[in-house]
C-alpha cells in the first residue's frame, strides 16, 4: 500500500497516536488505513458417502485438489459464500450445515471457515476455475495432491468425526507458507 | 476508494473479465482491488457467574455497554484477538473457550465472532476505550443500553445455553442499521 485510496497522496507507515501497531497513514486527508484478515468460506459437500473435490484451474496450487472455497464477498453470509463457491467451482447446489473447521492462516492474513454440506441432487459439473470435479470415497482421497493444509486439516477432521458419529468444530493455525512456498 | 493504493492512479469501477461483481480496477497497473468483510473478535468474560461489560468511550455507540470486542489484526488468531481486546478494553486476562456466536452484519461488511471466556483472576480495570467496566449478574444486564444487536444476540444465547447446561454455536444475520443508524 503506497498511496491513499481516498485522496491519492503518498502514504506514511507509522504508529498513530493511541494505537500500538504501525499503520498506513495519510498526512493529506488524515485517514488511517487498517489491514485486516480476509475470510475464505467453503464446504465439504457429501453425496452418498462420497466427497466432492475440485482440481484447481487457477493459481495458487493449479492442478491440485480442494473442496470448493473462496473469498467471502461483502453483503453475504458465510453460508451463502460457501454455497456460492460450490456453485461457481463445481456447478453444484448444496445444503450448508454446521461448521467443521476454522483455520487461521497467519502468513496469508486469512481465516478459512469450512462447513459440512450435502449435495442437493447429486448433480455437478466443471466450473471455470476447475480442471476437473469428482466424487471421492474416503479411501481414494488424493492426500498428496490436496492443495492447501487448511483443506487437508478439514477433510481429516471431517472423516474422523464421521467415523465416530459426532460433529465438532475444529480450530487450528498455520504460521508459515507450506511446502517451500 | 478513489485512487489505486499500489500506483496512485484514479480507479475505475467495473466488472472485470471473468468476474460477476463490480470491482475497483486500476487501468494504470492493472490491479483489481477487492473489498471483503472484516472480522470482529470478542468474548463474554464470566467470573463467579457474572459477566464483564464495558461502557464505550468511543463512537459508534459511545456511552453504551458491550462485551470486549474489536477488529481482528493480521497475524493473530480469533482467540488471540478476543483476548487482546479484553485486555485493552477491560485490563483483564481471560481464558478463551468455545465460540458462542457468529453474527453477519451485512450492511457494515462485518462478521462478529464471540467466544465464551473466563476471567483469569477476577481482576479488571478501565481501558482507554472504556468509560466504565463492571461485572453484571444476568438479572442486572442493562439490555436497553447494550451497544449493538450482535452483542445482545450473543448475551441472550449465552444465558439461554447456560441455563440449559449446554454450549452451542449460534449464527444470525443483521441486514440493516439498527435504531435509525
Structural commentary:
The structure is a homodimer of 181-residue chains. The first copy, chain A, has 181 residues and is α+β, with helices and mostly antiparallel strands. Chain A contains 2 helices and 11 strands, in the order βββββββαβββαβ. The first copy, chain A, has helices at 78-90, 149-164, and strands at 11-14, 23-26, 32-33, 38-47, 50-56, 65-66, 69-71, 94-105, 110-119, 130-136, 170-174. In chain A, the strands form 2 sheets. In chain A, strands 4, 5, 6, 7, 8, 9, 10 and 11 form an 8-stranded mixed sheet that branches. In chain A, strands 1-2-3 form a 3-stranded antiparallel sheet, with no helix packed on it. The longest helix of chain A has 16 residues, at 149-164. The model of chain A has no long low-confidence stretch (mean pLDDT 95). The A-B interface holds A 1-8, 10-11, 18, 21, 33-39, 71-79, 98-99, 102, 104, 106, 109, 111, 128, 169, 171, 173 and B 1-8, 10-11, 18, 21, 33-39, 71-79, 98-99, 102, 104, 106, 109, 111, 128, 169, 171, 173.
Set down the secondary structure blueprint:
Two copies of one chain form a homodimer.
Chain A: E1 11-14, E2 23-26, E3 32-33, E4 38-47, E5 50-56, E6 65-66, E7 69-71, H1 78-90, E8 94-105, E9 110-119, E10 130-136, H2 149-164, E11 170-174
Cα-atom Rg of chain A, whole angstroms?
Answer: 19 Å
Q: Secondary-structure element sequence of chain A?
A: EEEEEEEHEEEHE
- Give the helix level of chain A as a range of percent: 10-25%
Using the alpha-carbon principal axes, give the shape of chain A.
elongated
Amino acid at each position: 500500500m503506497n498511496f491513499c485510496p481516498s485522496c491519492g497522496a503518498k502514504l506514511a507507515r507509522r504508529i498513530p497516536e493511541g494505537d500500538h501497531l504501525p499503520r498506513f497513514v495519510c498526512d493529506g486527508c488524515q485517514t488511517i488505513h487498517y489491514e485486516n484478515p480476509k475470510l475464505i468460506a467453503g464446504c465439504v459437500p457429501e453425496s452418498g458417502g462420497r466427497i466432492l473435490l475440485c482440481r484447481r484451474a487457477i493459481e495458487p496450487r493449479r492442478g491440485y485438489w480442494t473442496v470448493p472455497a473462496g473469498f467471502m464477498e461483502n453483503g453475504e453470509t458465510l453460508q451463502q459464500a460457501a454455497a456460492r463457491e460450490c456453485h461457481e467451482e463445481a456447478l453444484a447446489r448444496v445444503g450448508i450445515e454446521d461448521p467443521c473447521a476454522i483455520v487461521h492462516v497467519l502468513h496469508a492474513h486469512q481465516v478459512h471457515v469450512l462447513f459440512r454440506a450435502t449435495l442437493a441432487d447429486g448433480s455437478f459439473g466443471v466450473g471455470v476455475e476447475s480442471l476437473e470435479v469428482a466424487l471421492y470415497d474416503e479411501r481414494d482421497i488424493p492426500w498428496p495432491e490436496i492443495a492447501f493444509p487448511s483443506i487437508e486439516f478439514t477433510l481429516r477432521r471431517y472423516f474422523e468425526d464421521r467415523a465416530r458419529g459426532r460433529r465438532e468444530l475444529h480450530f487450528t493455525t498455520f504460521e508459515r507458507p507450506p511446502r517451500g512456498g
